[in-house]
């Protein structure tokens, strides 16, 4: 009777153990499914963040490049003394043209759509600030840059410094011909009166700082994830 009692007690323990094992196996399956689901979500988010980080880093590299090659030689320098000029594409976008062919090619290769837009805004802002300063100082209009100034005669080139193939200059003025992509690839004119180098460098530095903050914040977020 004592042995039968022990056997019955052990069978109860065995039954509880089997039930516990079955329960834990179900929990393991649920946890594995959750891990797989969360891993997929993380990988998706990581891929999106990595792509965005690449874009932000490329934009940052563009502004670091521009800052290097538009650095003022002295406090009174103009952009012309840095071997670069502010030009306008047939699409109306403002950009920078470098006289050195290798620098121009590297600049063109690095440009991203977002950087093009930011550079255009900065150059227009510098032009506006210079006009305001000229107005406050009551300088003669001949010494200031105005948006209506006749464009200087320039060869039709792209931001890489090479001649444009199939330029759309003759069609840009009347709205015909090639599409926006062609118009945005060829320069229309380069202003004869370059903007203040120090002012441009300051604005570019601020924009570089914004892009650097964006890169750092996303990097921290990815590390936290």
Quick tags:
about 220 residues, mainly alpha, 3-stranded antiparallel β-sheet, rod-shaped
In short:
Helices cover 61% and strands 7% of the residues. The chain is mainly alpha-helical.
Task: Give a written overview of the molecule.
- This protein is mostly helical and 225 residues long.
- It has one domain.
- The chain contains 6 helices and 3 strands; from the N terminus they run αββααααβα.
- Strands 2-1-3 form a 3-stranded antiparallel beta sheet.
- β1 (84-89) and β2 form a beta hairpin.
- α1 packs antiparallel against α6 and α3 runs antiparallel to α6 (197-224).
- The longest helix has 68 residues, at 2-69.
- The two termini are 62 Å apart.
- Mean pLDDT is 79; it is low at 139-153 and 169-181.
> What is the number of helical segments per DSSP (H or I, 4+ residues)?
6
Low-pLDDT runs of 5+ residues are 139-153, 169-181
Strand-residue fraction? 5-15%
Q: Largest sheet, order of strands side by side?
A: 2-1-3
Distance between the termini: 62 Å
Topology of this structure?
Layout: H1 2-69, E1 84-89, E2 94-98, H2 101-110, H3 113-136, H4 169-172, H5 180-183, E3 187-190, H6 197-224
Antiparallel strand pairs: 1-2, 1-3
Helix pairs in contact: 1-6, 3-6
């Amino acid at each position: 009777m004592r042995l039968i009692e022990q056997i019955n007690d052990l069978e109860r323990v065995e039954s509880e153990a089997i039930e516990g094992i079955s329960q834990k196996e179900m929990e393991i399956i649920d946890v594995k499914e959750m891990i797989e689901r969360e891993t997929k979500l993380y990988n998706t988010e990581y891929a999106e963040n990595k792509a965005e980080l690449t874009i932000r880093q490329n934009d940052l590299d563009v502004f670091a490049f521009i800052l290097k090659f538009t650095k003022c030689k002295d406090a009174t320098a103009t952009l012309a003394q840095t071997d670069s000029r502010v030009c306008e594409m047939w699409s109306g976008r403002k950009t920078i043209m470098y006289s050195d062919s290798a620098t121009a090619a590297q600049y063109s290769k690095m440009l991203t759509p977002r950087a093009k837009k930011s550079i255009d805004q900065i150059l227009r802002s510098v032009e506006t600030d210079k006009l305001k300063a000229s107005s406050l100082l009551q300088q003669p209009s001949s010494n200031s840059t105005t948006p209506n100034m006749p464009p200087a005669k320039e060869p039709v080139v792209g931001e890489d410094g090479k001649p444009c193939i199939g330029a759309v200059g003759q069609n840009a003025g009347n709205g015909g011909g090639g599409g926006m992509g062609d118009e945005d690839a060829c320069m229309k004119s380069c202003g004869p009166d370059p903007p203040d180098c120090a002012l441009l460098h300051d604005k570019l530095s601020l924009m570089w700082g914004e892009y650097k903050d964006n890169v750092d914040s996303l990097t921290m977020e990815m590390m936290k994830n």
